[in-house]
UniProtKB/TrEMBL annotation:
Domain (UPF0033): residue spans on this chain: 5-29
Family: Belongs to the sulfur carrier protein TusA family.
The name this protein goes by in its record: Selenium metabolism protein YedF
Pfam family, one: TusA
Lineage of source species: Bacteria, Bacillati, Bacillota, Clostridia, Eubacteriales
Organism: Desulfotomaculum nigrificans (strain DSM 14880 / VKM B-2319 / CO-1-SRB) (Desulfotomaculum carboxydivorans)
PROSITE patterns the UniProt entry points to: UPF0033
Length: 196
């Protein structure tokens, strides 16, 4: 039986996430991931190839049907975890937007980042500094995703000086307040550090 995954109208990275989940549900077999734009087509294609699957792409009326086969006839999948020899992941989030440029685009990219992060092993800790502390407050667009990471064991801490500066301490909705000494200890301690 071939399962179809309808990814029409979905923004990045959701088509890749849906395809990944469908492949994780089967030990071997074929799925068809349907997307309606070239960016999604390329992202799903690259993901499936990197996962060691065979992929063919067919275009029909402006939509792309990616037939992805997983199993014995395909190359073995590489196992990638975030807790390899470098230790558990530590994220330092320094802004409420992802990257520089248009603020609304940066906010959208940050939502996309946290949605993607939910598909990986949970990081050991996420630290918010500067305007990044806004992401841990009541009106954050990524609060739901951060709470899910906390349920999976991620510790969340926010710089107290930063919360005070932005007058947000009373709006903190996840995690706890910390100081620069603890942030420094986490940056220099065990684990690979990623700064955004």
């Amino acid at each position: 039986m071939i399962k179809e995954i309808n990814n029409r109208g979905l923004a990045c990275p959701q088509p890749v996430i849906n395809t990944k989940r469908a492949l994780e549900e089967i030990p071997q077999g074929t799925i068809i991931s349907i997307v309606d734009n070239e960016v999604a087509r390329e992202n799903v294609l690259r993901f499936a190839q990197n996962a060691g699957c065979q992929v063919s792409v067919e275009e029909k009326n402006g939509e792309y049907y990616l037939t992805i086969t997983k199993g014995e006839a395909t190359a073995p999948q590489a196992v990638v975890t975030s807790e390899c020899s470098t230790g558990p992941m530590v994220y330092l989030i320094t802004s409420n937007t992802f990257g520089n440029g248009a603020e609304d685009l940066g906010e959208t990219l940050m939502v996309s980042f946290f949605n993607s992060l939910l598909e990986e092993p949970a990081p050991r800790i996420i630290m918010f500094v500067n305007s990044g502390v806004r992401l841990a407050t009541k009106h954050s667009r990524v609060l739901e995703q951060i709470l899910k990471l906390v349920e999976r064991g991620t510790e969340v801490i926010s710089c107290g000086t930063c919360l005070d500066y932005y007058k947000l301490k009373d709006q903190l909705a996840v995690g706890r307040v910390t100081n620069m000494l603890e942030i420094l200890q986490n940056l220099t301690g065990e684990g690979k550090v990623v700064t955004l």
